[in-house]
Amino acid sequence: MSDELLEGAPLGQSSAYPDHYDPALLYPIERAVTRETLDIDEDELPFEGEDEWQAFELSWLEPRGKPVVAIARFRVPAESPRLIESKSWKLYLNSFNQQRFASSVEVRRALKRDLSEAAGAEVEVTLFGVDDAALAPARMPGQCLDELDIEIDTFTPEPAFLITGDEVVEETLHSHLLKSNCPVTGQPDWGSVLIRYRGPVLDHHGLLAYIVSFRNHQDFHEHCVERMFTDIMREANPERLLVMARYVRRGGLDINPWRATPGEQPPEALRLTRQ
């Protein structure tokens, strides 16, 4: 990650929590810089997708000063030119704490306006009550790879683990053993990953080893998923592919990117127990 991209970012710095609403706290980062390292052309993206964020620390004041608490879900399109650095997003959301709004509609309108401007594309915003049934935990679909017996001593991304056979299959696989690290602070980012594809069968042991090989990799969640997508496409050449990660909440936010070949869609309303 280029130092210039993060110059002035709050990540890794001591930060005072804001006491008034401030959209300027949002810190956008150009996606193109990291995508260049994966030979991804910004003008012809090889995938569709979104970055889904869920915020569990959102509150504001009603006009008479009574607090409101809510949970928010944001969807940032993968074709947006910029992602938004997570700590700046957290600080921005905390800037709502002492701000008075006439209604939740006004809050949603402000969130959508500010985040869309920062990302450079329209961001979808949904607000939930804390007991909304839509937030109930679910399970990853498909076969879990985690009980496979593998031996591995490689903990940086290794596409050579992606081995295919002659049989063409359509299957959904997942693992809860994904771990990568923040590119600035080095803090661990724990997650689960789902891979759904149609194409030459992927060796399951090798795929699990590939997922585990991200264990010491330092990068943003969004870029880890894009690396997985491009590696699998290059090594296995499937007809269809979906890669989706569900990362564990940190600082009141969880980040859940997915990238897919055109027409593929992720499971709807999927939130895992540890999120």
Task: Write a structural description.
The protein is of the alpha+beta class and 275 residues long. It folds into two domains: 3-132, GTP cyclohydrolase I, C-terminal domain/NADPH-dependent 7-cyano-7-deazaguanine reductase, N-terminal domain (GTP Cyclohydrolase I, domain 2), CATH 3.30.1130; 143-260, GTP cyclohydrolase I, C-terminal domain/NADPH-dependent 7-cyano-7-deazaguanine reductase, N-terminal domain (GTP Cyclohydrolase I, domain 2, 2-Layer Sandwich), CATH 3.30.1130. 22% of the residues lie in helices and 32% in strands. The protein contains six helices and ten strands. The protein has helices at residues 3-6, 32-37, 86-94, 104-119, 204-212, 221-236; strands spanning 28-30, 48-61, 67-77, 82-84, 124-128, 143-144, 164-181, 188-202, 240-247, 253-260. An eight-stranded mixed beta sheet has the order 5-3-2-10-9-8-7-6. It has a two-stranded antiparallel sheet with strand order 1-4. The radius of gyration is 19 Å and the shape is elongated. It starts with a helix and ends in a 15-residue tail after the last strand. The model has no long low-confidence stretch (mean pLDDT 94).
Q: How far is the first residue's CA from the last residue's CA?
A: 26 Å
Number of strands: 10
Task: Characterize the main sheet.
Answer: 8 strands, mixed
Overall pLDDT level: 94
Proper CATH architecture of the largest domain: 2-Layer Sandwich
Principal-axes geometry comes out as elongated
Class per helix and strand makeup: alpha+beta
How much of the residues is beta strand, in percent?
A: 25-35%
CATH class bucket of the largest domain: Alpha Beta
The percent of residues in helical segments reads 10-25%
Regions with little confidence, pLDDT below 50 for 5+ residues: none
Count of folded domains: 2
Radius of gyration (CA) equals 19 Å
| Number of H- or I-type helical stretches | 6
Strand order of the largest sheet: 5-3-2-10-9-8-7-6
